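Section 5: illustrative case.
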């Protein structure tokens, strides 16, 4: 009968691989999960943003593409704040919520400026004024802004290393702050 304290060569190889993977593997897993969640929140925000801009430019803000772009960007940013704070980066807490929200909106303001600048250059600078051209410029701008946002969220807004315990207010095991 084999001794239960001995490990097979396969078990030993898995243990060595697990140790090698260690910190780098956990980092890759964390980044992968954050990117996937960020992507989903971003996709919904994109629909809010582009759909909102088109809705506004086809109705109440016809001819005012920059105003429509800013308003739809603000609506998408509000959705993204709640989604990213409560889901994507809920395991990262580096500062009080009011600091995070300030940094979040500052980062998103810069990203919105990047996106709006793409539209302004296309629409007014290059005189590409069709709805298709406006949408293409907006999509390019949103893409550039999204790259900037992901980097800035990880670097500045939700900057701490992932926590062992999720203290997000939406997590069922979060400590209660009420007496």
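Designed sequence:
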């Amino acid at each position: 009968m084999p001794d239960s304290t001995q490990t097979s060569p396969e078990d030993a190889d898995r243990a060595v691989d697990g140790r090698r993977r260690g910190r780098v593997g956990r980092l890759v897993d964390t980044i992968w999960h954050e990117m996937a969640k960020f992507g989903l929140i971003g996709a919904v925000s994109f629909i809010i943003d582009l759909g909102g801009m088109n809705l506004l430019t086809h109705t109440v803000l016809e001819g005012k593409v920059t105003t429509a772009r800013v308003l739809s960007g603000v609506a998408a940013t509000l959705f993204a704040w709640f989604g990213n704070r409560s889901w994507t980066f809920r395991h990262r807490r580096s500062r009080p919520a009011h600091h995070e929200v300030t940094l979040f909106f500052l980062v998103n303001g810069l990203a919105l400026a990047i996106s709006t600048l793409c539209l302004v250059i296309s629409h007014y600078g290059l005189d590409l004024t069709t709805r298709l051209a406006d949408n293409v410029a907006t999509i390019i701008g949103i893409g550039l802004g999204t790259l900037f946002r992901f980097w800035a969220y990880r670097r500045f807004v939700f900057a701490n290393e992932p926590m062992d315990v999720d203290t997000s207010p939406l997590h069922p095991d979060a400590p209660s702050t009420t007496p």
